[in-house]
Amino acid sequence: MHDRQGFTCGIASLDTYLKQRASQHQRDGIATTHVLADEDAPTRILGYVTLAAAQVELDALQPADRKRLPHYPVPAVRMGRLAVATSEHGQGYGQWLLGHAVNVSLRLRQQLGVRVLLVDALDAKVAKFYRAFGFRPTATQALTLYLPIGSHRNEK
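Above: the chain sequence. Below: its structure as tokens.
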């Protein structure tokens, strides 16, 4: 069992989610929470990421990413939350959790049909983090970003 109550990342809404809602959302099929635990202290949470099924309107994608897609909502995975314990900031765990989310999305694509990984960045600094890994802003909201995972030929 992971020590959810001992986790703190410095953002109250992310801490509260893990402590109060993550298990319920997992049970109810709303979102899955993927925890990165300390190898030496397996109950200690270093960070977490949540994933859920989603869709995005075709017009929200950049024009180059709309090519050859049907004119209805695009299947997606939403990365609802990504948080790293305050004591672990700067250790690369955020990048590791992001990589995990991409890998899960790619595996889902094999089974289900998923075109993009979506994320709603909390602010411009967080959006910059995601853009460094190839995420693109949607046409509708600057802090809603997506990473194309459906076709290597569309990646820049």
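Residues 152-156 have pLDDT under 50 and may be disordered.
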